Each structure stands twice: as C-alpha cells, then as structure tokens.
Amino acid sequence: MALWKESSYMLWKQVSPYCHMPHSLKFWDHAFQAATYLINRMPTSVLGMNSRHLNLHYTESDYKFLKAGMPGNMLNLFEAVKKAQAVVQVESGRIQKELAAAEFDGYCEGELIKVTLSGNQQPVRTQITEAAMELGSEKVSLLVTEAYKDAHQKSVKAMKERMSDIAQSLGMPPGFGDAMK
C-alpha cells in the first residue's frame, strides 16, 4: 500500500500543475490514459514486487505506447515515474533484506522478560528470568505480552524510518513519508 501511495503521489505531483490550466479534453484523455498505463505497470508488494502487466502478460513493459506522440511535459512525467519505480523497487528490496537480518529486543517493566523479534516481526526468542517465573503464570503471561509489544513497536518504528528515507530520496516533501505510515 505504501508503494501505491508513493507512486500515486509522484504522479499527482507531476500532473497537478496542469489541473487548473485550460487544456483541451484531448490532453486530459491522454493524461489519464497515460496514468492508467503507468499505474498498471507499477510494482506492488501484493504481487511480489511485480506489476499487474507483468503478471498478466509475462513480459516487461516497453512503454512504446506512451513514447509515441507524447508531449514534452508528459514525457518528463513518464521519465520521473519510471525513475521512481526503479528507485522504490531497489530500495524496498534492500530494506527488506536489512530488516530480515535485524533483531529488535523488547522488554517488560523491570526487564524480567526479553522478547526478540526479527525486522519482519517474526519471533526469534523469549528469555524469562527466574524472578519472573516466581510471579505466577498470569503475571508472566502479561509480562511476555508487554515485552512482545515493545519489540514489535521498535521493529515497526525502524521500518517506518527506512520508508521515510525512501520517500525523501524520491524528493517528496518532508512529512509525506509520515503520512504513509
């Protein structure tokens, strides 16, 4: 979903200056046709970072349709979106690998229990001290949940920071990456 928001924002950022200018209907027909064409070729995490076009046709997009007869401003839009696609795809793959290798420790109150999660929010290990065991099963259960929530919060925060870095590298305004969280 974040990739969709990023790519649709980039598209809107390029097209919005033209929204209040008097253009012929032919321009808007072409603009929306081009936007639809590009959106169907955006990679999405739901499809394993493939585009809808790739999954349907088993071929990479050649964008010949857009390049033929494209006005200069639309060509710039096309190039900007294509560049953003490449950056998002490379960066998100790198971040996923980074997060998979990372571990985040969460603690309960008093640090009686420590839970470790991977960057993908997969449980790695749980350490329970002898002092925690003496508190009884009900209390231990609450403390494990508290530690798990702490580790999860740290993991999600790290992921959001990485995604915000991608948004900034694409030239999005400060705070836009926060809106995607």
From TrEMBL:
InterPro entries hit by this protein: YbaB-like_sf (IPR036894), YbaB/EbfC (IPR004401)
Family: Belongs to the YbaB/EbfC family.
GO terms for MF: DNA binding
Full protein name: Variant 2
Lineage: Eukaryota, Viridiplantae, Streptophyta, Embryophyta, Tracheophyta
SUPFAM superfamilies recorded: YbaB-like
Cellular location(s): Plastid, Chloroplast
Chief location of this protein within or outside the cell: plastid
Species annotation: Pisum sativum (Garden pea)
UniProt keyword annotations, A-Z: Chloroplast, DNA-binding, Plastid, Transit peptide
Any one GO CC term of the record: chloroplast
